[in-house]
C-alpha cells in the first residue's frame, strides 16, 4: 500500500489516542508506527536487493516486534507519558495494521522473514486505492473538525481500513464466479482463470487467463452497466528452463524468477543474429480502460530484458526499476 494510506491510518490512531496519552506527541508515535516498515525504501537497496528485501524483514512478524520495542524505548525517553506497555501495544497494533494493508495487495509480503521467503498476498486491494485512501483522509479531517465525536469518527476510520479489504475481496469473489460464463460468451477457452486487482478496483478487475503456454490479460467491471466485450492482451509464458539458465549466468534472473508471480516473455530477434528476451511479470501489467487511455502500458515496472549473443550466452541485461531503465554488463 502507498505511504499516504499508511500515514492516514496513523493520523486516525493519533486522533483517537492522543488524549489517552495526554500529549500530542501521540500523533508522532502513531504516524511513525503506521509508516515505519517502509523504511526499507530508504536504506539504499540495489535494484536486485529491493526485489529480495522490500517487504522483507521490516514487514515480518519478527521485524514489527523489534520496531515496536524501539519505538517504545524512544518515546519513553522523549516523554514519560508514554508508559512502556501501553506504548508497545499501540506501536505493535499500528505496525500490524501496516502489514495488513500490505498483505491485502498483490505485491507480496514476507511475513515470516527471516525464517521463510514466502510472499503472502491476498489480492483484494490495488497498491494505490483512491477509494480507501481518500475515505480515510476524509474521515481524519472530519474527526478534527468534530470535537464532540472526533474520537468516534477516528474509530470509524480505522474500522473502515480494516474491513474495506474484506469487502473488496468479496467483490473479487463474485467477479471470479462469473468469469467462466463471461469467457464462454466471448469464445475464450481457459485452463485456469484468476481475478486480480487493477487500477480502480473494486470497480475494475484484471482477468488472467492461462491456456497452455499462453497467458491472456483482460479487464472486466464489477458493475454490470459497465460490462462490454473483453479485449485481451496476449503473452507467452516465460520459459522456466531459460530463466533457470540465465539465473546461473546472472543472479538477478534467479531473483526475478523467485519474485515474479505470472512471468511472461517476449522475444525480439536482432539484425546481428542475437535476440532480446523481455521478461515481464503480468502482475504489474494493466489492460484496464484507465491504463489504456491515460498511461504508457508498454512501460511495465520490474521488467527484465536479457540481451543474448549469437551463441545464446547472456551479454548484458536491462531492468526497469521504478520507471528508470538500468543497464548491466555481464562479464563471462
Automatic annotation (TrEMBL):
Under the heading Pfam families, the entry gives: YdjM
Which source organism does the UniProt entry give? Desulfovibrio ferrophilus
Q: What is this protein called?
A: Putative membrane-bound metal-dependent hydrolase
Listed transmembrane segments: 21-37, 57-77, 89-110, 122-141
GO MF terms, alphabetically ordered: hydrolase activity
Task: Give UniProt keywords alphabetically.
Answer: Hydrolase, Membrane, Transmembrane, Transmembrane helix
Amino acid at each position: 500500500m502507498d505511504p499516504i494510506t499508511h500515514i492516514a491510518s496513523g493520523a486516525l490512531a493519533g486522533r483517537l489516542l492522543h488524549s489517552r496519552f495526554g500529549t500530542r506527541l501521540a500523533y508522532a508515535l502513531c504516524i511513525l508506527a503506521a509508516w515505519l516498515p517502509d523504511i526499507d525504501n530508504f536504506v539504499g537497496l540495489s535494484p536486485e536487493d529491493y526485489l529480495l528485501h522490500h517487504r522483507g524483514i521490516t514487514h515480518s512478524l519478527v521485524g514489527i516486534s523489534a520496531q515496536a520495542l524501539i519505538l517504545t524505548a524512544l518515546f519513553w525517553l522523549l516523554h514519560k507519558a508514554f508508559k512502556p506497555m501501553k506504548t508497545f501495544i499501540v506501536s505493535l497494533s499500528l505496525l500490524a495494521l501496516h502489514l495488513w494493508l500490505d498483505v491485502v495487495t498483490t505485491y507480496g509480503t514476507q511475513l515470516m522473514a527471516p525464517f521463510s521467503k514466502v510472499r503472502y498476498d491476498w489480492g483484494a486491494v490495488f497498491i494505490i486505492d483512491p477509494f480507501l485512501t481518500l475515505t480515510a483522509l476524509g474521515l481524519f479531517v472530519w474527526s478534527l473538525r468534530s470535537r464532540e465525536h472526533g474520537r468516534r469518527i477516528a474509530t470509524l476510520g480505522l474500522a473502515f481500513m480494516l474491513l474495506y479489504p474484506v469487502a473488496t475481496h468479496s467483490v473479487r469473489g463474485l467477479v471470479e464466479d462469473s468469469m467462466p460464463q463471461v469467457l464462454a460468451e466471448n469464445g475464450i477457452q481457459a485452463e485456469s482463470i484468476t481475478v486480480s486487482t487493477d487500477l480502480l478496483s473494486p470497480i475494475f478487475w484484471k482477468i488472467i487467463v492461462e491456456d497452455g503456454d499462453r497467458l491472456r490479460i483482460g479487464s472486466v467491471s464489477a458493475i454490470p452497466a459497465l460490462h462490454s466485450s473483453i479485449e485481451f492482451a496476449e503473452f507467452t509464458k516465460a520459459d522456466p528452463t531459460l530463466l533457470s539458465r540465465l539465473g546461473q549466468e546472472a543472479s538477478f534472473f534467479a531473483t526475478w524468477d523467485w519474485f515474479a508471480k505470472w512471468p511472461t516473455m517476449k522475444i525480439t530477434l536482432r539484425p546481428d543474429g542475437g535476440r532480446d528476451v523481455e521478461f515481464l511479470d503480468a502482475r504489474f501489467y494493466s489492460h484496464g480502460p484507465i491504463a489504456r487511455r491515460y498511461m504508457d502500458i508498454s512501460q511495465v515496472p520490474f521488467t527484465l530484458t536479457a540481451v543474448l549473443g549469437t551463441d545464446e550466452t547472456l551479454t548484458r541485461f536491462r531492468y526497469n526499476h521504478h520507471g528508470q531503465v538500468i543497464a548491466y554488463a555481464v562479464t563471462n
